[in-house]
Write a structure and sequence with these properties.
Layout (H helix, E strand, L loop, with lengths): L10 E12 L7 E8 L2 E5 L6 H16 L13 H10 L4 E4 L3 E8 L4 E9 L2 E14 L5 E5 L5 H10 L1
Antiparallel strand pairs: 1-2, 1-7, 2-3, 3-4, 5-6, 6-7, 7-8
């Protein structure tokens, strides 16, 4: 992973309860949070964020969905320095820079909407899928039961305006 001395960017969007990962037949999604800056999309599965802070912001996001309010916003207790630390914490966390993105698309299904991100890195193309979960089943393994129907266009617009 390329280590940058200074990150001159701002967090624009922070979404909790995201199910995502690399798309593919043998690939399994995982729970995480999506942090979107003006230069990258980061999918964080392993974080230094405390459970209490994560729980508070997850509940706030749930209330915003119920009230049809804007969920595309940053959270107060998470800055660029926390994002950098989380990306360095574990290789399971995904850093998708806008300059390596080939395509950003929205897939609408009956069960929910998905943000599709196609990345080209060193000549290899990979596709990632991200959806926001509405409810979970926790046994035998944590898996999503229902997904949110959201309009991902603010993310696509941010990407297009940044490139």
């Amino acid at each position: 992973m390329q280590r940058l001395l200074e990150w001159d960017e701002q967090i624009k969007i922070h979404l909790m309860w995201v199910w995502g990962g690399e798309a593919g037949f043998t690939k399994r999604g995982r729970e995480g949070m999506l942090v979107i800056t003006d230069r990258r999309i980061a999918f964080i599965s392993k974080t230094n964020m405390t459970y209490r802070i994560h729980d508070v912001y997850s509940r706030r996001q749930r209330i915003r969905f119920q009230r049809n309010e804007n969920v595309f916003r940053p959270i107060e207790d998470y800055s660029i320095s926390e994002l950098r630390a989380d990306l360095d914490k574990d290789s399971i966390n995904v850093n998708l820079e806008f300059k390596k993105m080939v395509k950003l698309d929205i897939e609408r299904k009956r069960w929910g909407t998905t943000l599709m991100v196609e990345v080209s890195d060193e000549g290899k193309k990979k596709t990632y899928k991200f959806s926001i979960v509405k409810s979970w089943v926790k046994y035998p393994a944590k898996d999503p039961l229902q997904f949110e129907q959201i309009d991902w266009s603010p993310v696509v617009t941010l990407f297009r305006n940044s490139t």
